[in-house]
């Protein structure tokens, strides 16, 4: 169906066109039926007329024959004929002719020759003699005879006296009045035709006469049946034989006017009925479609409302057909079902499923609403200290129980607050072990009280599965009065305050102005570093700090250190950006960059004939990265550098992370010829067991022990014993942060293998290093 | 019927006695139609020497009777100038007429015997009818020739004298196909004479049905 039209229109069209079609077919069928019927009627009428005509002519003949016979038997007539006196005969013909109203009286002798005729007309004898049937006339007979454009019904009667002495021919003309009589009898127009001329006709109209003649002569006697639908004329003509005459034909003309008008009347009445039916059908179908479309519209409005979210479907106001009522009920059910589900979905979308508190998104939008309404808020974020460890210890189920308990305590706390405040306080769980409470406030003075009450509420002892648990919790507080009215930023600032509380190991920390700026600066740095790593003219560059081989007094090793001068031309603290790179996942990219640069540089030095060993700092993420070793080897093979020239430096912390994998990797690297150095040794979780098991070549004693070595006896003891320990374990020992000659001498005395520090050289560019190296400045 | 026959016989014998001389040698003629059926009422005239003179001074009166709505006899031969009486033997009236050239007359409705006989003094055939009984037709053959005789029921005529060779025979019959006013003529040849009986054939038309008006009503095409 074409959807361009409305349902209503379609129904109306359907029914109307169906009826229209029916009417058209009925009309056409009636048309043909009626035409057939009328044609048959006409044919029948003509047949009947023909029979009647023949019968009439025959009867007339009979009467005439009788009349003529009586006339011929009249003694006086016989006597007159027997006189053979022309004048007498003529007079008797006239006289007796008048008696029977004959139009023509003739006497023929026994040979058929015209003796005399009534003087009314003068005929040539030949016409008569040739037309009267051949002699002898055994019987009295009647025939049709045409003489001089007149048609006669003639009776030939012998005159017997008592033997036949002559024949008398008595004729009655078929004149106009005779034809009119015939017409009245057969109710058809009659025309007599001789040799394509109409001799006489009951038809008055010349044109119709002509038409009759044309039709009659055109089709001969074998004519088509009347075709009412095709013919345009008002008459149907049929050529028939007229009595037994050879040269005279009759044309019967049936008037079609009445039939045509009947026919037109029929068609007209059919059309009127059709029109009425169409109008009725149209209005009925309108009513029907109205009956369909009204409920449809009601249902459509319901669905529209449901679509808009108005799930409360109103009660059905008007009476509808039962199907639609059922459908409507269905919509009502659907509406409430959708409403329930929507509530559920909304709940799930807004809530933390475990605790039933709001989630981050919901509280964010709620805070946003508050702030936009100029309601000031205090945001308290609190974090459970070492929740992950707790989870591992007591099991996640119990840990969840704790979280649920916290949530219920928060709710209790909030309820208390809400009884005092017009604006509702709300709470959310915004992280696994982090909650956020949003409290409308009027001034910041009450903050301390609020937090204290919260602390009292939350930090009550937990009893979980008969285990008594006390939690330490960090609170971070931000408020919209001091810290801005942007919801997201406010939340971030409260979170930041928690982080700082954790960092500072204090239980409650207010957001400090500037915390956020540092955070944003770090974010900015990360973005800039990312760009720097992708930039071919990178603002990153490598510096190298020489390591002095104390035994030989020569520099044969270097530490590669990355440096960065940012867009503003500031020197960025390497510790800061490396730390950021580690946190943001950029470190592996950064390390690759470093590896490539260093290996290029080593290759360059190799080509200059300086075989230095260069150490590269790695993070835990680097060594654990899948493609790290592959990349290292590929880069080496691209340049002419031996693995033994590369020392990989890792801190104790890095080594502790995923120890097994790191150990495996290091063993492998070592087998390839790389050397491994432990950086910052002595300040972290230094474990002798690790040193024993790890494939380490070198220990770097942290600079905190070296910087003031010459002044501190304790440092000297630690360094001396560490060097001794390292040597015992077969490791080289490197001291970094050597700042003066005294320290270097001490190290020499302690038999340290390598020294590194400002006393020897700051980290410098490769070019400067070579300059320095070749000037032999370092050799003292 | 018996009376009719008897009467005819009497009349015939009377005629023969008056007209024809008795002869010892007889010649027999037989008149037949085209179907070889004997043809009565055929009138035969032949040429021969007059054998007799008028015997009686008083003219005989010939009778043309009307019996049972029929002329009796059907054909009557009378010598030229004879008187014929038309008695009506029926119990109904007749209106006898003739338009024939030989004798035109009319005996208006009458019964019994008319006042006086009619004289037929002109040679020829007189066709008679009855105006009120169309089926009645009778003929009076007014003969100038004394040798005029009529065939009998068997179509036969006996002549009292021999007919020599080359004798002309004229035969008339009411239904002869040559017409009422004409004769069929024959000449006696040897072949005929050699036979005991001379047979002469005349074509006749089948007699017209004597239409009456009753019959007309039954007439059909």
From TrEMBL, chain B:
Asked if the keyword Signal belongs to this entry, the reply reads yes
InterPro entries linked? Cupredoxin, MauL
Which keywords label this protein? Signal
Q: Does the keyword Cytoplasm apply?
A: no
Classification via Gene3D superfamilies: Cupredoxins - blue copper proteins (2.60.40.420)
- The name this protein carries in UniProt is Methylamine utilization protein
- Give the CDD domains listed for this entry: MauL (cd04221)
List where the protein spans the membrane. Answer: none
Organism per entry: Oleispira antarctica RB-8
Signal peptide location = 1-25
